[in-house]
Write a structure and sequence with these properties.
Endonuclease III, domain 1; about 220 residues; mainly alpha; DNA-binding; Endonuclease Iii, domain 2
Length: about 220
DNA sequence: GCCCAGGTGGGTA
DNA sequence: TACCCACATGGG
């Protein structure tokens, strides 16, 4: 008894993308006006509802502190006060400071110099910064620098697990490589795909009951995940 | 009141 | 390597 081969991975990933794009349309991500704002948003959004990260960004904007030089000159304590609505603000103030310090100390204040060049080296430079893990690094690389790297967030893992595209314990890296090896290396596609997964996650993955009306509803899925 | 959100790093076995 | 845990706010 042999199992029938299912559709290949790239067909499944394409199908999911097409469904999401049809349902939600282009997402115009990342919601930020400058690469620096992408970096700040990526750090402030860590384990935090985006609405709270937005409040913190609005505070920084109002204070004129949404630039690398302003962030360098701000005391960590004052920075923490401004980003307080994003939660874990002392941790995040230290992380933002660590990031900005590297930009000024190693790259003369040029964010482009830090995130530009070849993707693997830029990714290593980012991961070496305290407070920048794989997801934050990939978000910065994709949305601030235009590198074709896939951002894997909690929604992505949950959605793919639920629809049996990845195993329950699949690592961040395994999930990222799955996308990168089964889709064309296309910055625009990776940008849109991640944004669409977040759109789906926010709308349909908050609770079990929210599955109704999900664009992926008729794809095999496990309610428990 | 409880749970969670567009994670990460440090500690322990 | 594989789990725990702290960090902390605001909305459902």
């Amino acid at each position: 008894m042999t199992a029938m081969p299912g559709p290949s991975t790239h067909v499944i990933l394409r199908d999911i993308y097409d469904r999401l794009f049809r349902a939600y349309g282009p997402q115009h991500w990342w919601p930020a006006e400058t690469p620096t704002e992408v970096v700040v948003g990526a750090i402030l959004a860590q384990n935090t509802a985006w609405a709270n990260a937005e409040r913190a960004i609005a505070n920084l904007k109002r204070a004129g502190c949404l630039s690398l030089s302003a962030l360098r000159d701000l005391s960590e304590k004052e920075l923490a006060r401004l980003i307080q609505p994003s939660g874990t603000y002392r941790v995040k103030a230290a992380r933002l400071k660590a990031f900005v310090d590297v930009v000024w100390r190693d790259h003369q204040g040029s964010l482009d110099a830090l995130v530009g060049g070849r993707l693997p080296e830029a990714r290593r430079r980012l991961l070496a910064i305290r407070g920048v893990g794989p997801e934050t690094a990939d978000a910065i690389l994709l949305y601030a620098a235009g590198h074709a790297t896939f951002v894997v967030d909690a929604y992505t893992q949950r959605i793919l697990r639920r629809h049996f595209v990845i195993a329950p314990g699949a690592s961040y890296e395994a999930t990222r490589l799955l996308f990168q090896q089964h889709l064309p290396r296309d910055t625009v596609l990776f940008n849109e795909y991640h944004a669409l997964l977040v759109a789906l996650g926010k709308k349909h993955c908050r609770s079990r009951a929210a599955c109704t009306g999900c664009p992926l509803e008729d794809i095999a899925h496990d309610e428990q995940l």
